[in-house]
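HUMAN:
Sorry, I am quite new to this. Are you able to go through these amino acid letters and fold codes? The numbers rather puzzle me.
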Amino acid sequence: QVELVESGGGLAQPGGSLRLSCAASATIYRFKVMGWYRQPPGKQRELVANVTLEGTTNYGDSVKGRFTISRNGADNLVNLQMNSLVPEDTAVYFCHAIDLIIHKEYWGQGTPVTVSS
């Protein structure tokens, strides 16, 4: 069973930055896509960013130009650098992955991010 563990959430001021990390218990190259979703209070879960096995990145419209996803194969990490944070970025952020072979989805437990002055 693969586990995804998020870290790096917390409180940030508007205009500030946070860096989230997702640590996988297996090589990240077993996933055809890996990335981040978020769920704001009272709203549905939405895509933030992901990266395919081939290295193609995709971003939600609201974070383009502010967030950057990257991966570290040596440490089995996928990171999300979040800059120019706004209150609307407040949400629980979940790491997500889909297995390349069996197409099973994996989710982390989530890490909360609050953007407030």
